[in-house]
Design a protein that fits this description.
The protein is of the alpha/beta class. The chain is built from 20 helices and 25 strands. Helix 13 packs across helix 14 and helix 18 runs antiparallel to helix 19. The chain is globular and about 80 Å long.
Length: 587
């Protein structure tokens, strides 16, 4: 009976029947089969200050877990009475517990590669510091292979025009590719330009620009937006083990910061294969909605035709923890200096400026109609107000206008700069405002001052829009969302309450990916995705929220991260195997 219940939980979700609605019927079946007496739970988490995110019961003291599922919440006394001789009892010591975090926007493989394989540059490094860092990397890997490094900040180079002369002087014979801090652009040396076949007579690619000196026409080494592909296509693939190591590093970092579910925002064929391998081996320990790149060889590492084929074959990569019914579209670039490749609204006409638009309203509408029919959830990158308006227009055309809120609903990724007239369109169109504020809390980063008044949290919330929060890792050094949580409640404008911000990071995220009946709150019948914090977020100054440490992360009933500062007894839990809910004997 337990096996049938576990197997059909996913089917009920796909049919649109929340598990909690069906759960009472299960109880009747179990009673009929002679299972009237519930078995003791596998684990009891007691003496906690548990914030459930459930409006009907915000706080509890204890949680009972059997297999991968929460089977009871309540007081220490009531739940301790249910313990059996083999029940593991975890004393939380009064620490705050909350649901696992949903990171609504991340790039795990890209981030993992940057921090395990590629060359790292100091933050705000000038030319000399960049050369020193790249030279150190070159010394560790001698030869003539490409050196890929990041991220350089063009605003930290001083008043002189940006060019690659300093790279050419230091590395005349070895190709060097430097990611710019937004990841949208690059600076390369002349050796890399030559290998890429780029000369002063090369035309700019569509929606991209090759940097040239305005007076002499000489190449500067800057590659803007789609021009980066001219160089990246020449960089050989990394060894297979590098990709696997990078993904493992990224997943472990998610666990370290309490993330138990994500929206992978640049899924390629290689990454989908890795996710599938990890989950089939039982080592993923993360729920993933994989947004497959559409229409961009820059981000998808494939031609448009190959990406279309990948989307059509997506079902082959689906597993228990991987939802592949999702796509990713880039509407424009990045709204940061000095390149400003976002699509704005023209001040004279009041209409979106087409200069930096990557996809037209008509083309996007056509795709959204097809994806809606196929049950695919799109995530649409909108960095400028013009891109946001075009995306909203296409969504209104494709989904039938306000009031037609059939799932799955599109995300507008970043939602940082939105015209007031468009803020109020999110809610009636059922569009999810995915807020990935990865750059307002990075500290004193030259050029980032422009973002201080972006992300209209309060206005969107007032309008009734559903919001989620993402890290946009690779931009920050890690996927830690507690600085973003602090930022959401301490904005000098557009601040929201702590309750509202936690909702965005937990149950709103689960709802946005169609998993509200499985995780996002601490409730009976939901998966035991829990995190234990080193402080009570509701009892500290808002300015201290960003320093929060996750002492333990529990994914589907099993600890997958235990911080060195946590009680030593907790570490034994991670090595203990879990079982399916309903098995008759405890392990």
């Amino acid at each position: 009976m337990a096996a049938i219940i576990d197997r059909n939980r996913t089917l009920w979700s796909r049919w649109g029947l929340p598990f909690l609605i069906v759960a009472p019927l299960i109880g009747v079946i179990i009673l009929a089969c002679g299972g009237a007496h519930a078995a003791p739970p596998d684990s009891l988490y007691i003496n906690g200050h548990v914030y459930t995110v459930d409006e009907t019961r915000r706080w509890v003291e204890a949680i009972a877990v059997t297999g991968d599922t929460i089977t009871a919440v309540g007081t220490n006394v009531s739940l301790t009475a249910s313990a059996g001789p083999k029940t593991r009892i975890v004393d939380l010591g009064g620490r705050m517990v909350m649901p696992g975090i949903h990171d609504a926007h991340t790039h795990l493989l890209m981030a993992g590669l940057k921090w395990t394989y590629e060359c790292r540059l100091p933050q705000n490094a000038g030319r000399e510091a960049v050369v020193a860092a790249v030279r150190a990397c070159a010394d560790k890997a001698p030869g003539d292979d490409w050196i890929v490094a990041g991220e350089y900040n063009p605003n930290a180079f001083g008043e002189a025009p940006i060019n690659n002369a300093f790279l050419d002087a230091a590395f005349p014979d070895r190709p060097v590719f430097l990611y710019e801090f937004s990841i949208h652009h690059a600076l390369v040396n002349s050796k890399a330009l030559a290998l890429a076949g780029i000369t002063r007579d090369s035309p700019d690619p569509p929606k991209g620009r090759i940097g040239r000196d305005p007076l002499t026409g000489e190449l500067t080494g800057e590659l803007i937006e789609m021009a980066t592909v001219l160089a990246t296509r020449m960089i050989p693939p990394y060894p297979d083990e590098a990709y696997a190591t990078a993904l493992r590093f990224a997943i472990d970092n998610c666990h370290k910061f309490g993330i138990t579910s994500i929206q992978e925002s640049s899924a390629t064929r290689r990454l989908l294969q890795l996710y599938r391998e990890f989950d089939n081996a039982g080592t993923l320990n993360l729920w993933v909605m994989a947004h497959i790149v559409w229409g961009s060889n820059k981000w998808g590492d494939a031609t448009s035709a190959e990406l279309d084929k990948l989307i059509s074959e997506r079902a082959t990569f689906a597993t228990r923890h991987i939802d592949v019914d999702a796509t990713k579209v880039w509407m424009d670039g990045a709204p940061l200096p000095p390149y400003f490749s976002q699509a704005d609204i023209d001040t004279e006409s009041g209409k979106p400026d087409p200069k930096n638009l990557l996809v037209s309203t008509e083309v996007l509408t056509e795709r959204l109609v097809k994806w809606r029919a196929a049950g695919i959830k799109p995530k649409i990158h909108v960095a400028g107000a013009g891109a946001a308006r075009v995306a909203l227009d296409a969504i209104e055309l494709a989904y039938g206008g306000p009031g037609n809120l059939t799932a799955p609903r599109p995300d507008l990724a970043h939602s940082d700069i939105i015209a007031d007239a468009d803020v109020i369109r999110y809610a009636p169109l059922g569009v999810i405002a995915e807020m990935s504020p990865a750059i307002w809390h990075l500290g004193d980063v030259a050029g980032f001052e422009v973002v201080n008044d972006w992300w209209p949290f309060a206005s969107l919330l007032k309008s009734g829009a559903q919001m989620t929060i993402g890290s946009d890792w690779t931009l920050p050094p890690d996927p830690n969302l507690f600085p973003a949580l602090e930022g959401a409640v301490t904005r000098r404008k557009q601040a929201v309450s702590l309750v509202q911000a936690i909702d965005m990071m937990t149950r709103n995220g689960a709802a946005s990916v169609g998993q509200a009946d499985r995780f996002g709150t601490v409730e009976v019948g939901k998966l035991a995705n829990l995190i234990v914090l080193d402080r009570d977020l509701f009892a500290i100054e808002p300015s201290e929220i960003g320093e929060t440490r996750v002492l333990m992360t529990v994914f589907e009933g099993r600890p997958v991260h235990v911080d060195p500062a946590a009680p030593e007894s907790w570490r034994d839990l991670a090595a203990t195997p879990i079982r399916k809910q309903g098995m008759e004997e405890n392990p």
